[in-house]
Amino acid sequence: MNQFDTVIISDTHLGARNCAVTKLRTFLTTVKTRSLILNGDIFDDLNFKRLDGAHFHCLRAIRKLSTKSKVIWLSGNHDGAAHVLSHIMGVEVRKSMRLQVGDKTYFCMHGDVFDEIIRDHPTLTLVADFFYNWVQWFDTTRNMALFLKRKCKT
User: Fold this and answer.
1) What is the C-alpha separation between 16 and 6, in angstroms, rounded?
2) Within 13 Å, how many C-alpha atoms sit on residue 66's CB side?
3) How far apart are alpha carbons 101 and 87 in whole angstroms?
4) Is the pTM of this model over 0.70?
5) Rounded Cα–Cα distance for residues 145 and 71 (Å)
6) Within 40-109, where are the H helices?
7) Higher pLDDT pick, 100 / 133
């Protein structure tokens, strides 16, 4: 079993077709940690119909881990309902946190706060998210979705 003081996981995007949910669940069920920090974008979006059995097993693994470890969810731009879901998952939600490691202090937050498009153009972001989700549904090879994801900031 892997044993750590603190584990930080970011951008799991549960519900997305390209989510590595099986690897994540395996890791969560084999890790022993005092603290787990879920650093944003735990869900891909709020369409929970996209969650299949593997995604729900992963959520159960987080819930089970929260009974033994402190779990903190730092909300990201995809985590609109974090404050509601946190009660079901048994985790605390924050926007940011300080992490003390030895004599050093680290500041943790999700990087969406630095994304000018998300911050300054919320309508454009909603339209782009809708289009990207449509492309993911339409393009079963995921090639177009991956191409768009790589090019979206340029």
Assistant:
1) 26
2) 19
3) 28
4) yes
5) 31
6) 53-66, 82-89
7) 100
